[in-house]
Design brief:
By secondary structure, this protein is an alpha+beta fold. 43% of the residues lie in helices and 16% in strands. It has 12 helices and 10 strands.
Length: 389
């Protein structure tokens, strides 16, 4: 079966430098300039033209195997691809179908599930969101209470998910639901696929600190999904869900966002005339060193991925370092902006306009999503340093 656009060449045969040049030329020539480094998560209507172009080119799923319609990139080539997207400030779209659903179905799904769901993901015809977090089950995800009861040929789902990114743009959702209430917390959870148009589903946007509605609550009231939409074995959904976490943490730990924050910080400092101030330069140098060291440790973990080796629990260090460094940069941007530091939108500073609060809005949630930094510290303490629980 042809799942997507056939690749015209084996990208992995190119030297890394040549492959990076190909990707860089594509994004610089064709990505809309007005969409670079957006101050918020873009809605599907805003950036779908770019991703439909990527889909038509066969570049929508760089990490998928070629036999499933992807580019078939090796781990090292995939990192280069993602780094170039970040370097050019290209906003992610609602990509849970590409990053999670596709790889999970390739590993745990049935052939019927792959044939049904992979082609519309590749064509951007079906957009997925992630139904994991709940009230009282965010960082402690195993505490989830959404239930799914098998009745005849259907699972009947009742419960609530929250902080579901762009659920109002999605057509489908992956749902972690408890299917055995007598089992231990990590056991008795199943991984289900669900069409959001199913009766009994309610999606309610949540307005955030900046006034944007990136996140949603999703409610399920006697919602039916066919038993054929169970991925993997019954009550083994925890293993399915956590299979994608290692690469997610190295992606979140990229130095690109902190590097972008430093660019904004320097622009604000020049506009305020404090670029040469001794105190400012001292604080800037500390942050520049933190970002440089982040780049070094990122390169270390990227090399592990590039060799095809699994990432150990120490990768949690990367996520903590990247997100908290970015937050410190965002805080200094606001402080340096002075009386402009609390103004939303583009602010007239010097000879131009700067969105002073954009890095702040981007930075605040980074230490929470992908497993909160408190959880990452627990992982390091217990699994790396062997400290007592």
């Amino acid at each position: 079966m042809n799942f997507g656009i056939a690749q015209q060449q084996d990208w992995n045969a190119l030297p890394d430098v040549a492959f990076r040049a190909v990707v860089r030329a594509e994004v610089e020539a064709h990505h809309p300039a007005e969409l670079r480094y957006p101050p918020r998560r873009l809605r599907w209507a805003e950036n779908k033209s770019w991703y439909l172009r990527m889909a038509a080119k066969g570049w929508i799923a760089p990490g998928w195997p070629r036999e499933y319609g992807g580019m078939g990139l090796s781990p090292s080539k995939l990192l280069i691809f993602l780094e170039e997207m970040e370097r050019w400030g290209i906003a992610r779209f609602q990509d849970h179908g590409i990053l999670m659903v596709g790889p999970i179905l390739m590993r745990f799904g049935t052939e019927a599930q792959r044939r049904r769901y992979l082609p519309p993901i590749l064509a951007c015809e079906e957009i997925w969101c992630q139904g994991y977090s709940e009230p009282n089950a965010g960082s402690d995800l195993a505490n989830l209470r959404t239930e799914a009861r098998l009745e005849g040929g259907d699972f009947i789902i009742n419960g609530q998910k929250t902080w579901t990114t762009l659920a109002h743009d999605a057509s489908h959702i992956i749902v972690l639901a408890r299917t055995d209430k007598t089992a231990k917390k990590q056991m008795g959870i199943s991984f289900l696929l669900l069409d959001l148009k199913t009766p009994g589903v309610t999606v309610r946007p949540i307005r955030d600190l900046a006034g944007h509605d990136e996140f949603c609550e999703v409610f399920f009231e006697n919602v039916r999904t066919p038993a054929s939409n169970l991925v993997g074995e019954l009550n083994q959904g925890w293993n399915v869900a956590k299979s994608q976490l290692g690469f997610e943490r190295i992606h979140i730990g990229s130095p690109k966002l902190p590097e972008y924050g430093l660019q904004v910080l320097l622009a604000v400092a020049r506009a305020r005339g404090v670029e040469q101030d001794a105190l400012f330069r001292d604080r800037l140098a500390q942050l520049q060193l933190d970002v440089a060291h982040l780049g070094d440790i990122y390169t270390h973990f990227a090399a592990i991925v590039g060799r095809g080796e699994p990432l150990g629990p120490e990768v949690s260090l990367l996520k903590i370092w990247a997100t908290e460094t970015f937050q410190r940069i965002a805080d200094l941007i606001i402080e340096t902006a002075g009386d402009c530091g609390g103004l939303a939108g583009k602010v007239k500073m010097g000879d131009g306009h700067i969105e002073v609060l954009a890095p702040f809005y981007k930075a605040r949630p980074t230490s929470i999503y992908g497993g909160s930094n408190e959880i990452q510290r627990n992982i390091l303490a217990r699994q790396v340093l062997n400290l007592p629980g």
